Every structure is written in C-alpha cells, then in structure tokens.
Amino acid sequence: MSSRRSSRQSVQAAVKEGLLRVTLNRPEKHNALSREVLNTLREIFEAHAGDEALHAAVLSGAGDKSFAAGGDLRDLESIRSVEGAAEMASRVKGALGAIRRFPVPVVAALNGDAMGGGAELALACDFRVAAAHARIGFVQGRLNISTAWGGGIDLMRRVGPSVALGLLCRSEMLAAPEALAIGLVDAAAEPGTPLEDCLAAFLAPLLKQTPQVLRAFKALALAVRTGLSRGELDDLETRMFAATWVHDDHWRAAEKILARKGA
User: CA angle, 196 as apex, 191 and 201 as ends, to 5°?
Assistant: First the structure.
C-alpha cells in the first residue's frame, strides 16, 4: 500500500492505491472558491497529471453541508472592471481546465450543495456522485450574473440546451434524485447510505481497469468534448488501441481467457 499526502490550509490532497483524493477544506466558509483555492486546485491537478499509476481522482468538500458554495465574494469583491472580470474568468477557466484535461477520470463527490461556481466546478469533472442530501444548482442569476468558468457550456452539453437554459433561467437548486433523473449527476446515495459507500461502489469498476486503458478512454472522451474531427478521433483511437494492445497487461488478460477456454 502506497500513500503520499500534501496538505495546505485551503485544499488537501492525497494519493493512495492509485486514487487521488482532493478536498476543499474551508467548511466554515461553505468551501467557497477563492482565487487561492482555485490556483491550488490547478497546481494539484497539474502536478499529478504525469502520475501514470493513477486510476482516477475524486474531488470533494470538507464537512457535509457544502461541496462548494461558489466564488468567494469577499475575495472577488475588489474586481470592479470589465477587464478585471474577464481576466478573473479566464484564469479560473484555466484552473478548471486542468481538471477537465486531467488524463484519468475525475469524480466530483458531492458531500453537500454545489452552488453557482461550485456547480461549474462539479461539471468540470467527468462524473458526479451525490450524497442523499446534496443539491446542485446554477444559481448565478440570483446574483444577477451569468456563468463564467465554462460551467454553462458544460451544462448545455450535459443535459442539452433547452433543459440547461431552463435551469439557468430559474436559478433553481436540484435535489440529488432530480439531478440524477436528468443526468446531471451519475449516481446518488439512498437516504441513510453514506456517500463514501455510494462512491466506493461507483469507483469499483474503474479501479479494476488498468491505468493506461483509463487514460486511453479519457483521452478519447476529451477529444470528443473539445470537438476534434472524425478523422482526428479515428487517429487518436487507433494510437491508443495500438499502445494498449502491445502492453503486457493485455497479453496477461488474453492468456487467462485462452487458458479458461483450453486453447
């Protein structure tokens, strides 16, 4: 069993048995996303991107009330110009982009509410697993602002423009079962079931895959997400297939099947 841990005041990160766990550690502020927090998230994900032993990453929040309450208004209130707002949005898109581009699947474990920018952070991940009491909502309209960090685009792609537009215009918070019904989250714990149990069940099939295969699947998903042409996608798929085909892990799996068949 291997374990590596780094701890900072606002974000904690640990790697254990092929799983990167990242935790927003500001429960007293509902895990609000300050620029420091967002910069640290970018640093963590970029620092671990080259770890070829990773199977997946999990992003969650401390406590049981908030995954992330959105942008830290105290930290951001000094931004008063169009240029400043645009620069901030671009910088945060870079931070969330490090999560979107992470080479293995990233799961947002919604321990509590994901609101506004917190919902955008959750949608930057590949999957979302929600606690029974968790809610998610693009409530930026309540502050008379629009989405800023790429989350509106992710939402449109995830649930379709019509459903997404309705969610944005209503600024509503969706309970876990409602979010599950429209595909906004991928799994939700039943009442009385701990989030960690639901998360473990969701992760179990992923952790059985080899890291290089997970990287191949994530690379293809990211390529589709970013709009590569069919020809470029075919080339990428072929390269990934060839690399995994010649890997020793493939031949070990094939030999087991052949042995069972008596071939």
Answer: 90
Reading the block at residue 221, the tokens are: 């998903």
48: enclosing H helix or E strand: helix 35-48
pLDDT digits (tens, 9 = 90+) for 125-179: 999 999 999 999 999 999 999 999 999 999 999 999 999 999 999 999 999 999 9
**3-class DSSP state of 22:** strand
Half-sphere exposure (Cβ direction) of 93: Cα atoms closer than 13 Å: 14
Q: Which CATH class is domain 3-208?
A: alpha beta
Q: Could you please report the per-residue DSSP string of 58-114?
A: EEEESSSSEEE-SB-HHHHTT--SHHHHHHHHHHHHHHHHHHHT-SS-EEEEESSEE
Q: How far apart are CA 176 and CA 168, in angstroms?
A: 17
> Dihedral sign, CA of 187, 190, 195, 200?
negative
